[in-house]
Design a protein that fits this description.
The complex is a heterodimer of chains A (109) and B (110). With 109 residues, chain A is mainly beta. Chain A is 0% helix and 55% strand. Chain A has strands at residues 4-6, 10-13, 19-21, 23-25, 31-38, 42-49, 56-57, 64-70, 73-78, 87-94, 98-100, 104-108. In chain A, the strands form three sheets. In chain A, strands 2, 5, 6, 7, 10, 11 and 12 form a seven-stranded mixed beta sheet that branches. With 110 residues, chain B is mostly beta strands. The radius of gyration of chain B is 13 Å and the shape is globular. Classes of the chains: A mainly beta (109), B mainly beta (110).
Chain lengths: 109, 110
């Protein structure tokens, strides 16, 4: 089974901090994605990547950046965390089907 | 118009009843559709995929696809309290773009 691992289940950060969310997949997938999920808004795509060192903006990239230095690892970076970035963050990996990580619930105070 | 739309619910059904979840999509060229189940605080997990018109059955779950009317549905027979979750409809649209609906919350009442 494809495994997508997110390094933290829960994080609490202060406004203005730089935050790193890590995601690792073990099935050599080229496609990786970062979503945030908020009540009533569903899954919203932040960034995605189809290959190493490649990145594309999704629907809501503002305030975020990403890094993909190795195929198995896709990192989401909040350059300066703000309270409106409090959310559930989901990483996904994909060949034909999406597989999601367990999610990181980030609270910015 | 969103690419994939769902009624957000909430939908409540009694235990043992049939739960019917619906989804419409805007891209007529879409080929593949998926239903994900998401328990509270957990990540989505794939439960059904459907690629051609008609019905696809897997245990108590039946996915239905009607490309002419551009809708996808999920039927859950003999609903159980453990089926209580949010169900996400997703479509792979032309251009290999993948879109999720906002989800329908289902509660099965014992």
């Amino acid at each position: 089974d494809v495994k997508v691992t997110q390094s933290s289940r829960y994080l609490v950060k202060r406004t203005g901090e730089k935050v790193f969310l890590e995601c690792v997949q073990d099935m050599d997938h080229e496609n990786m994605f970062w979503y945030r999920q908020d009540p009533g808004l569903g899954l919203r795509l932040i960034y995605f990547s189809y290959d190493v060192k490649m990145k594309e903006k999704g629907d809501i990239p503002e305030g975020y950046s990403v890094s993909r230095e190795k195929k198995e690892r896709f990192s989401l970076i909040l350059e300066s965390a703000s309270t409106n970035q409090t959310s559930m963050y989901l990483c996904a990996s994909r060949s034909a089907l999406y597989t999601f990580g367990s999610g990181t619930r980030l609270t910015v105070v | 118009q969103k690419e994939v739309e769902q009624n957000s619910g909430p939908l409540s059904v009694p235990e043992g009843a049939i739960a019917s979840l619906n989804c419409t999509y805007s891209d007529r060229g879409s080929q593949s559709f998926f239903w994900y189940r998401q328990y509270s605080g957990k990540s989505p997990e794939l439960i059904m995929s459907i690629y051609s018109n008609g019905d696809k059955e897997d245990g108590r779950f039946t996915a239905q696809l009607n490309k002419a009317s551009q809708y996808v549905s999920l039927l859950i027979r003999d609903s159980q309290p453990s089926d209580s979750a949010t169900y996400l409809c997703a479509g792979e649209l032309t251009g290999n773009q993948f879109y999720f609906g906002t989800g329908t919350s289902l509660t099965v009442i014992p």
